[in-house]
Amino acid sequence: MIRTMKKNRKLLPQYAVFVEGECEFWYIQMLKRNERVSNIKLEPIIPQKKKLSEQYDSVVALSKDYDKVFWIVDFDVIIKETKETKKGAKTALQEFKEYVKDIEKHNENIVVIINNPCFEYWLLLHYETTNKYYASYDDLEKQLKKYLPDYEKKQKYYTKQNNDIYLRLVSKLATAISNSKKMDKFDFKNVHTGVSQMYLFFEENELKQIFAPK
């Protein structure tokens, strides 16, 4: 019996969630804490190196060790870097588009998830059906605070015992997933559209049975 249990443990699907920011990292941690995930190994990972090319290389490397890798991208950073690109040089937008195409062609176990402008758009979709584009984080935060007046991008806020970010929002998870699916199309030719593709994470086969609305 002991040998069988060990064998089954090794067979658990291993999923990596590669995130740019701490908010996404804390959110996944709280999701794990509250749902007590047992049928998969779910690992949130923050890159030490932030350059887009380095992130891409890390994601591809992780795909060799994990059954599935979710690359969660805050698009405001790419838009900002694109605006700052010197004339004639490849933009961050062009670079990222190439990475996405390469992943779609060669890496079936990598799922790219775009939040435009940032992760807080996913939080907002728990309350609104919208694809409004927010050019600045301050504008988005102002709208989000209509529903979460005390919102802060701080670990204390995200991980507070018995009142963490996941617990605050889980009752509206079905709404957020539905809104995310409605507004999931991202157009590289028109980046000024609000979008969160987080539903791709929640509706992944092994995850769906855990996180599907009860």
Structure write-up:
The chain has 214 residues and is an alpha/beta fold. It has one domain. Helices cover 48% and strands 13% of the residues. It has helices spanning 2-10, 22-35, 52-62, 75-83, 92-106, 120-124, 137-144, 155-159, 165-169, 173-182, 199-202, 205-211, and strands at 14-19, 41-45, 68-74, 110-116, 195-196. It has a five-stranded mixed beta sheet with strand order 2-1-3-4-5, with helices on both faces.
Spatial order of the strands forming the largest sheet: 2-1-3-4-5
Pairing-aware structural class of the strands and helices?
alpha/beta
Measured as a percent range, the helix fraction is 40-55%
Strand content: 5-15%
Report the biggest beta sheet as strand number plus sense, adding barrel if it closes. 5 strands, mixed
Question: Residue-averaged pLDDT, rounded?
Answer: 89
Order of helices and strands: HEHEHEHHEHHHHHEHH
Spatial extent as radius of gyration: 18 Å
Whole-number total of structural domains: 1
What is the number of E strands?
5
Distance between the termini: 33 Å
pLDDT < 50 runs, ≥5 residues: 1-9
Dominant shape: globular
Instruction: Determine the number of helices (DSSP H or I, runs of at least 4 residues).
Output: 12
